[in-house]
Automatic annotation (TrEMBL):
Gene3D superfamilies: q2cbj1_9rhob like domain (2.60.120.620). Its cofactor is L-ascorbate. It comes from Panagrolaimus davidi. PROSITE patterns: FE2OG_OXY. SMART domains: P4Hc. One of its GO terms (cellular component) is endoplasmic reticulum. Residues 1-15 form the signal peptide. It comes from the Eukaryota. This is Fe2OG dioxygenase domain-containing protein.
């Protein structure tokens, strides 16, 4: 991997300083140059990708979204979270003492990767601040919120990032993990945006050549598994480095099994989920 171009860019344009050495090295060690290039110019990249916009009415409200990829589905829902909830979670964030989130690896799990530089906090499903989001989720989607893990707030400061990875966990079939045994692997990821950074911080999908730069209140939804509950190879994604400011997001991982209304058309040629499989009242 060639590190110099991105290092030089940090130095020249974004005020690299000596005390940023550790964080910038973590980026350079865990990101490919071509993926960083996507992150640094999302507008140019957007021009090279088609996006189809929809506006549908479901359960007494209008839902606006753009489809950035069809197989597998990658969707940006515009203004999914109402402004008063966005502001509420901005205040919640400011009053929390978030902890560093670590990505471990190695045979014994003791190796700590530099791939994620962020702070985080899990929220109980009983948290009253989340009730309106869960209700809207169930109103809009055929996926059932009872199959989701708890919400996790993630806060990325300057040079914070999460290098490209899969959310699909790929546990062995005999795993004793409760979530896996009860609801299966991670079917999809919903990422709710609470605050955007001044520079950087988009969500990149390197294999799709897509970067999404949402606004506060937007939700990004993508599928980590196909209709056979196998990993979607194109779901490889990352949180682009923050070059100025702070990004705050809420992640919600949706598991594969026990969705009452989620029906999929079995097709040997198309194994990805389709819009009418997942969204209520979509014709």
């Amino acid at each position: 991997m060639l590190w110099f171009p991105f290092f030089a860019l940090l130095t020249k344009f974004f005020g690299y300083e000596e005390n940023d050495t550790k964080l910038s090295e973590a980026i350079l060690e865990t990101w490919q140059n071509e993926t960083l290039d996507l992150c640094l110019d999302p507008i140019k990249n957007f021009a090279g990708n088609s996006a189809v916009s929809y506006r549908i009415h479901t359960n007494f409200e209008w839902i606006n979204f753009e489809v950035r990829n069809v197989q597998p589905l990658l969707i940006r829902f515009v203004g999914f979270v109402p402004p008063h909830i966005v502001q509420r979670f901005q205040k919640v964030h400011d009053n929390l003492e978030l902890e560093d989130t670590k990505v471990s690896g190695g045979a014994d799990g003791n190796f700590i990767s530099k791939s994620r530089q962020a702070k985080g906090q899990w929220f109980s499903k009983d948290d009253k601040n989340l009730l309106e989001i869960y209700q809207k989720f169930d109103n809009v989607f055929k996926m059932d919120s009872k199959t989701t893990e708890n919400f996790m707030m993630l806060s990325y400061d300057r040079f914070g990032h999460y290098a490209p990875h899969y959310d699909f966990l790929n546990f062995s079939i005999d795993s004793d993990n409760w979530w896996y045994k009860t609801y299966g692997d991670r079917l999809a990821t919903a990422l709710f945006i609470i605050k955007t950074a001044e520079k950087g911080g988009g969500t990149v999908f390197p294999k799709l050549k897509v970067v999404i730069s949402p606004e506060p209140g937007d939700m990004i939804l993508w599928f980590n598994a196909n209709i056979k509950f196998e990993q979607e190879d194109l779901s490889f994604h990352g949180a682009c480095p923050i070059l100025a400011g702070r990004k705050i997001a809420m992640s919600l991982w949706i598991r594969c099994r026990q969705h009452k209304d989620l029906k999929c058309q079995m097709n040997d040629e198309i194994l990805s989920h389709e819009l009418n499989d997942i969204i209520r009242n979509f014709d």
